[in-house]
Amino acid sequence: MKTCRTVFLAVLLTFPLLIDNTCAETIENISSATEIRQYIEVTGNSKKIFQWTLDNSEDWILTSQDKQEVHRTWLARDLSTKRWHLKRLSEDTETWAWRDSNILYIEGTLNGKRFDRFHPLDDRPWYQALSISLQKLIEGSKDNLSFWILHPGNLDLHSMQVSKIEKLSLEFYEHQIPAWQVEIRLTGWKAYLWHANYWFSVDDGRFLKYEAVSGPPGSPVTKIMLSEAYLSTN
Predict the structure, then answer these.
(1) What is the dihedral of CA 125, 128, 131, 133, to 10 degrees?
(2) How many CA atoms lie less than 13 Å away from 105 in the CB half-sphere?
(3) pLDDT at position 139
(4) Could you list the mean pLDDT of each consecutive 10-residue stretch along the chain, which spans 234 residues?
């Protein structure tokens, strides 16, 4: 399951629910201004930094990028994905995906090869940017939900589920941050093969931390954390 670690980057990676009043307040906060954050990803001895930018000048557009690749996600008001663009500079990869009703279309170039495909969906949402879309769960009243996501490595479509684990005090850069911990898994029998944990701020819904094994048993753990300079502790 080595490829599972990149699900986060579709930042993961990522719900068929009506928006309740609490969630609506979160969405209003998101739309109030452009926001920039920086995250640090560590796997074994490898470390990289990427920038996370939410721009609402015309449409809600989330961009996550490092030196090697750029993910750009267009979001609906319920935080589901409407459209997604991936550009991987070192592998001659540039792809577009968009949802039209219950069909997900994908086209572009993957590792230098042109392709054009589509996937039938059900009514569950498509979440390609879990660092923001999972706020739908933590701000809502339900404890779990299911969604679709494209694997950014091979563009395969996966059915996933996310569950609330607990509300806790997260020790983070020597601060104690009230946080929600949630867990994502594949659905069905594959749920037992791999899982990942996310932590979000209780106060503002901000994505704080991700942790998961990066591959089969014995593989190093991947951790992604918000840079301390972007941490609000007030």
Answers:
(1) -20
(2) 10
(3) 84
(4) 38 31 37 81 93 86 94 94 94 96 97 95 97 90 93 94 96 94 94 92 94 85 94 67
Fold type of domain 2-230: outer membrane lipoprotein receptor (LolB), chain A (2.50.20)
**What is the domain partition of the chain in residue ranges?**
2-230
Does pTM top 0.70 for this prediction?
yes
Could you count the other beta carbons within 10 Å of the beta carbon of residue 37?
A: 18
